Amino acid sequence: MPTARDLIGRTFRELGLIKSGNAMPEADYQEVLISLNALLDSLSNDKAFAAYAYEQTYTLIGTASFTVGPTGNVVSVRPAKIESAYVVLNNISYPVSIYTVQEWDSIINKTQTDTIPTAIYFEGIMPDATVKTWPISTGGVLHCRVINQVTTFATLSTALSMPIGYEEAIVKNLAVNISPQYPDGALSEITVRTARSSLQRIERNNTVIPKLSVDSRLPGLGRGTSYTDYIAG
After folding, report:
1. pLDDT per residue over 197-224, tens digit each?
2. Cβ distance 48 to 39 under 8 Å?
3. Interatomic CA distance for residues 123 and 106, integer angstroms
4. I need a labelling partner for 117 at 20 to 30 A (CA). Which of 47, 104, 153, 178 fits?
């Protein structure tokens, strides 16, 4: 697992600032650590950079909302976004819509109660995010598929396990980002192109393309017929 120092050292070599086996002044490593974490924090806004989306659960207890984060009702890393959700009640799963702020604000009676919620709204406040449910329900278990913020490095010696391709993307993009700070370095066009293409490869690998289904009411088609089957006749 590479440490922050490893990645920063590779970045300095990418810019031609040091040769293999040499090192920059310690102050430069500390300064670029800030830039490295800022890059990772920025990439948190792109769900395609997340290695995976994992599931968090919460048992509904009749409250209008709950919090998720380091000090929340659900104690975890504060999620960057909820991708999808469903409720399980009596061993049956029910889909739940993820509302935008406009859709949430359009609900007239936010205190309405029912057996299960049909929608949730994610409010990304800090340090704990708030998840609001509607209608207010009790007994079911809400399952949320969440995207977490990209992990940052606490110190130069902090190590981070990364999927294939992530280390290259981070080094190349960090080199692009810090190049204005180091005018003596040489940012090559190859580095710039690789920085862009490495992120695109990660995006392609992590993006899930939804399956398009054709309305079963069309003549001769059953429920869930795929578009590929439809155009194939």
Report:
1. 988 888 777 665 444 444 445 455 454 4
2. no
3. 16
4. 47
